[in-house]
DNA sequence: ATAACACTTGGTTATATTGCCAAATGAGAA
DNA sequence: TTCTCATTTGGCAATATAACCAAGTGTTAT
């Protein structure tokens, strides 16, 4: 396995890592429909503001979401457009297993 | 967020967690074409036999792969058939980013 | 300018993950 | 039966991740 292949795997892995947390996955799903600001997540998740912010940062670094500051708020939106489809695939797969 | 929704998120998260490691992701990709036994992975990954076995166990618990013992060997094969498609989606997405 | 607001960043502790080694298992060969 | 061979399991140390609190940043309101 060469260095380029290792890099490819690490980049892909970073996306899966970003999605591998219930709070992050939930936030990503919330963004399927429309953008949200950080405070909207904090209320529902019952996590510290800093914790939610860090989770969003992980998703942003993996290029799954992107942010835009407008006024006092930072709005996050979905960047990886195929994610709704991916989650649908996995959900259907899970059904077959039971 | 109710208990059922939490469970759904955790199950989905388990799949992403399983894929969130370079060695595991690589092994899964190797299974796109055909089944493999554990020793075939060990040689290339340069990891301990026990380590590879544990990685495969994680993927198996997430229902991403399945195993079948035949003779002296254990053969692993892909169970989540949509994975090649999913990885293709993410790869294309990454391209747009650069 | 100063205060309030919506975040982000730094630091710390608790918990989870990963890797190796050594020992256990289970099937086929001798 | 006893001996390999292929793999799994248990245990431990190193590293990574996740949560909170406190402090910092940048923007808007007063």
Walk me through the structure:
2 copies of one chain form a homodimer. Chain A has 5 helices and 3 strands. Chain A has helices at residues 3-19, 22-30, 38-45, 49-61, 83-97, and strands at 36-37, 65-70, 73-78. Chain A has a 3-stranded antiparallel sheet. Chain A has 98 residues and is of the alpha+beta class. The termini of chain A are far apart. The interface between A and B is medium-sized, with 33 and 33 residues. The first copy, chain A, binds a DNA duplex (30 and 30 nucleotides) through helix 4.
What brief labels describe this structure?
homodimer; 98 residues; alpha+beta; 3-stranded antiparallel β-sheet; 5 helices; 3 strands; 14% strand; globular; DNA-binding
Beginning-to-end CA distance, first to last residue of chain A: 36 Å
Number of discrete helical segments of chain A: 5
For the largest sheet of chain A, list the strands in their spatial order: 1-3-2
**What's the Cα radius of gyration of chain A?**
15 Å
What is the percentage of strand-forming residues of chain A? 5-15%
What's the order of the H and E elements of chain A?
HHEHHEEH
Largest interface: A-B, 33 and 33 residues
Q: Note the main sheet of chain A.
A: 3 strands, antiparallel
Structural class of chain A: alpha+beta
What is the tally of beta strands of chain A?
3
Query: Low-confidence runs of chain A (pLDDT<50, min 5 residues)?
Result: none
Tell me the overall shape of chain A.
Answer: globular
State the helical fraction of chain A: 55-70%
